[in-house]
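Annex B. Sample input.
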Amino acid sequence: MANEGNEDILGKKLFFLYPSAVIQNQVAAELIQQEYEVYIIKDHSKLRRILKKYPSSIVFANINDGMSESEWEAWIRGVMGDPETSGVGIGIICSGEDENLKRKYLGQVKIRCGYTVVKSDLSIAIRQLMDILKAADAKGRRKYIRATTETETNTTVNFPINGTFVNGAIKDISVVGFSCAFDADPELVKNTLFQDIQIKLQTMLIKAEGIVFGSRIDGSNKIYVVLFTQRIDPEVRTRIRKYIQSNFQGKMDSQFK
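Annex B, continued. Sample output.
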């Protein structure tokens, strides 16, 4: 997960609260593919605790689910009025037009991240959300989200070397590349191209080609950095982003049970 206090560099966390299936599987999924750090939360009390730790986050609340309208208003006003969470940007995302609600939340409650209505043409809602996120500088200065994987046992890489595969442990990964370490140093040479790298991300297996960018010493380990080539399959990028979101979500869920 992005580090607390580094929102200007690493961007802001984006939470969808009580999203519908369409919002979660299509709208939020597209924002993940646009390199936003997205979380799905279905417990408003839990989210209040999360926001106190990450007070520069953005929340898109689906007011069609989870609570009554009066409870939603009270919850939103509570977040905005609490000094610990007053910096949170809140937006509404819902499935129906209601001009009275829209006027209330934008004009009276004064939410800062818009009132987005999801209709049959999802591209309109996605474009509106992306405009809101751009205005909020939600990405910060980073271009790509990166997941650290050091605590995971099923995140590995196989390099084809001299007719066999050498297995290593992935330390972190993005759609640009990854870093890894080996039990026995294979002495990878800088700028070497590997065309059949096998990457296992939990239950997901992908193949890609990459170039050894360099290495560094971390304690007693030698860490290699590998960059994917421009020929990487777009579907591989899609799957890596899905994995990164799952990685972030798992860490957030374990931190706030």
